[in-house]
Design a protein that fits this description.
By secondary structure, the chain is mainly α. Helix content is 65%, strand content 2%. The N and C termini lie far apart (73 Å).
Length: 275
């Protein structure tokens, strides 16, 4: 299918009507020669969008695995063709994670409960007010996983600005590394879902999420290259830990305000309901 300007006998873009002399429109990127809709054409179009005409998805997947900081630096420096954008990749991966969980009939709250039980030193009594309160918090986070996963990014960018202030990157540029790393860390989480379905809950599956720590440090070592590797290593760990520490404080304050405004939740936390 091709659109022709009969007055000048030149090819026009099917989308923006600009003159086209190649396979793709130079203004909007629309493909010039479009075949009739069919099952095969739909399948090819699907893979073209996932894979990208120049290997966009595989380039992003490969480089975020072996050189995440260099990929982030390339994007910040203006390369917008080789890789998926950090925000798009982040939401693509978390969406894929949720789709796989749904396909495997796994409740995200059950996975999160496993992770929290691994981290907790003691557990509240089953059926107690504290147990019901914890379940409510887990349900709220699991039902809004995209939001809560994204909320940590500004804190990580802020801590990166603090610890790497001589890098001269602005707030948005500092957010590229945590967006890429957090999104890419969903790959081991997806593997954990399959292990969860095959073998059932186990501690090492919950620990797969910790891959984000060495991945973040590796990314920082490659992204912030104006200092010695030892300094960047220490600062990246401090920035990562500080970001989560500040985020937890922020989250606790928000929950505290919410609890104070909700008498039913205050009742759950009464000592008489937790004996």
């Amino acid at each position: 299918m091709e659109l022709i300007d009969t007055a000048t006998n030149t090819s026009l873009c099917l989308n923006c009507k600009a003159e086209v002399s190649s396979n793709f429109c130079p203004d909007c990127g629309q493909r010039q020669m479009v075949k009739r809709l069919s099952l095969r054409e739909g399948w090819n179009d699907f893979w073209a969008r996932i894979y990208g005409f120049d290997g966009l998805f595989l380039n992003t997947l490969r480089d975020l695995t072996i050189k995440p900081g260099l990929a982030a630096r390339e994007f910040v420096n203006g390369n917008r063709v080789t890789y998926y954008g950090p925000v798009g990749y982040f939401f693509l991966m978390i969406t894929l994670y949720l789709i796989v969980a749904s396909f495997l009939n796994i409740e995200i709250r059950d996975v999160m409960k496993l992770s929290s039980s691994v981290a907790a030193t003691n557990q509240p009594l089953a059926g107690s007010g504290q147990d019901q309160f914890n379940a409510m918090i887990l349900n709220m986070i699991s039902d809004n996983l995209k939001l809560f996963s994204f909320m940590i990014i500004p804190f990580q960018a802020l801590m990166a600005m603090l610890f790497f202030r001589k890098s001269r990157f602005n707030f948005i540029e500092h957010s590229v590394v945590p967006l890429y790393v957090t999104g890419h860390a969903f790959w081991p989480s997806i593997i954990g879902l399959f292990l969860y379905r095959i073998q059932g809950p186990s501690t090492y599956q919950a620990m797969l999420g910790l891959i984000s720590i060495p991945l973040y440090v590796l990314a920082c070592l490659q992204f912030y290259n104006y200092q010695s590797r030892w300094k960047v290593f220490v600062k990246s760990l401090m920035a990562y830990i500080s970001a989560y520490f500040v985020f937890v404080i922020f989250f606790v304050v928000v929950i505290f305000i919410y609890v104070l405004s909700n008498p039913e939740l205050l009742e759950l936390l009464r000592p008489s309901n937790n004996r």
